[in-house]
Amino acid sequence: MRRLTIPCPLLHRISNLSGTGYSQTTANLSCLTLKSTTESELPPISSEILLDSVKSSQWHIVEHLADNLTPTLVSTTLLNLVKTPDLAFNFVNHIDLRRLDFQTQCLAIAVVSKLSSPKPTYQLLKEAVSTHKNSIRDLFDELVIARDQLETKSTILFDFLVRCCCQLKMVDEAIECFYLMKEKGFDPKTETCNHILSLLLKLNRTESAWVFYADMYRTKIKSNVYTFNIMINVLCKEGKLKKAKEFLGIMEIYGIKPTIVTYNTLVQGYSLRGRIEGARMFINEMKSKGFQPDLQTYNPILSWMCNEGRASEVLREMKELGLVPDSVSYNILIRGCSNKGDLETAFGYRDEMMKQGMEPTFYTYNTLIYGLFMENKIEAAEILIREIREKGIALDSVTYNILINGYCQHGDAKKAFALYDEMMTDGIQPTQFTYTSLIYVLCRRKKTWEADELFEKVVGNGMKPDVVMMNTLMDGHCSSGNMDRAFALLKEMDEMNIDPDDVTYNCLMRGLCGEGKFEEARELMGEMKRRGIKPDHISYNTLISGYSKKGDTKHAFMVRDEMLSLGFNPTLLTYNALLKGLSKNQDGELAEELLREMKSDGIVPNDSSYCSVIEAMSNLDHDADKSDT
């Protein structure tokens, strides 16, 4: 078969007419690539041909050669592109860099890190971190070798690696990179350290944040205003407000001026703890320093005051400063009203929000739907869901969980499971909360066998149950009298390293008391204490109620006395349980005395309390009638 070629002189004329660049190596390569594919394979590609193709941006040629590029050829080309890192990045984007060995990939990252923008470097680092089985130490060491090949003194590449790990939420790996940098004598930038501190704060690993901050100080890495803002936030999160305030003074000692973010962090910290006067003190201080409070200043105060029913005070203060509520402000107001059952006002804020040109967010709708279910307004919740769907808004996992849990709480298993199926069809993965809600409704409908099946499915799919899911299933079996299965679940919790809590033992105690096994329930309270779990009101009230139903008021009062000795005050449930026991024994005199004690403790008796006393006194009335006769 004859070869199909285009004469190189003609190719030269075509390139001139089309305005594309031309070189002898490109022409030679083009002549080769236009041969019939039935001929022999391409001859070895030289580094000159490849480099010339890259420099002239002949990316179609580069892509054509990509499958035949060796690590050595790519590495040589990259080293020749050190002064033009933009071309190096384009080059690696036109070949499948992942096909090449680890060393070549690291060299590409090192060359691209010379770009003024860090984004391309982050892109390549994320690919390296996510796709390779090599450890972070391996990646770090290989990047050190690549840096040495470039003969550069800059260590910014390793700062990029730390920040990349932070972006991927791999905080332990980021910290490991930090210490590897220090081992090599590289000084991590303060901004890099701030990325680690910020991620530790987001992950609520405040203790680790302090350890890392101490190492920063020990290795003489200077803190800046962002470092102090993060650590003040850490202190606020830990509830150490006095120390957070002291940190403000330390900043000024170091000559670092607080920013509006510093003050807003303190205002938020104090507001979340209900220390509104302290929050206002910082607002006054920031004003004296020339800072104008903004919505980030007032929204945390609004959140707390909304819970206290005093939102109007904050809204008035915001208005005086010319601050217009944003979507966050409205969502705070809507949540506050919904939690109190004031749905009319909550929907009023929703309408006002829309009039201001702000579209309700998922949080807005989820808050309203939750409020409607809590107020048993199922139809209104369904109307709101239709409204969301008509707007073309796809439900998110939170919405599905609120709906599924709402229907489960109202015993509507059919609708709950229909939504579960829809959730799966939409590609939204159910969470532990989803499955716990479904297990709850099955147990409530006495379908414990089906609840067990669903539980086994969850475990079989690799999801580790939490203590709430275990307690829900256990409570279902206790309520159905399946105590053997309930205790088997306690054993499974130990096998799965799920720590039981007071709710776990209260469920088991209630189940045993329901079967009249009061001594076993009492022994279970002892086991509870041995595990370091403190019994609560419910624990003691469960035992008191159990003994009282049996009419064993002697032991019921003994448990009450133990409860008092531990500092627990009797509740309405405690007194009503004791009164029922006295009623069963028709001990009217003691019932009257207990009723007086109950009132003196500031507990208002209810209908059940009075009914028990009346029943207990009926024996006294009967004896009086007999004496009159």
Q: What is the helical fraction, as a range of percent?
A: over 70%
Secondary structure class reads: mainly alpha
Strand content: under 5%
Radius of gyration: 35 Å
Mean pLDDT: 86
Question: How large is the count of helical segments?
Answer: 36
- Ends: how far apart? 133 Å
The main sheet comes to: none
**Quantity of strands, as a count:** 0
User: What is the overall shape?
Assistant: elongated
**Could you name the ranges where pLDDT drops below 50 across 5 or more consecutive residues?**
1-40, 624-629
Keywords: Repeat
Pfam families: PPR, PPR_2
InterPro entries: PPR_rpt, TPR-like_helical_dom_sf
Family: Belongs to the PPR family. P subfamily.
Structure description:
- InterPro entries: PPR_rpt, TPR-like_helical_dom_sf.
- Keywords: Repeat.
- Pfam families: PPR, PPR_2.
- By secondary structure, this protein is an all-alpha fold.
- 72% of the residues lie in helices and 0% in strands.
- The protein has helices at 8-18, 24-33, 47-55, 59-65, 71-79, 85-93, 102-112, 119-131, 136-150, 156-167, 171-183, 190-202, 206-218, 225-237, 241-253, 260-272, 276-288, 295-307, 311-320, 327-339, 343-355, 362-374, 378-390, 397-409, 413-425, 432-444, 448-460, 467-479, 483-495, 502-514, 518-530, 537-550, 553-565, 572-584, 588-600, 607-628.
- Helix 20 packs parallel to helix 22 (362-374).
- The longest helix has 22 residues, at 607-628.
- The radius of gyration is 35 Å and the shape is elongated.
- The model is unreliable at 1-40 and 624-629 (pLDDT under 50).
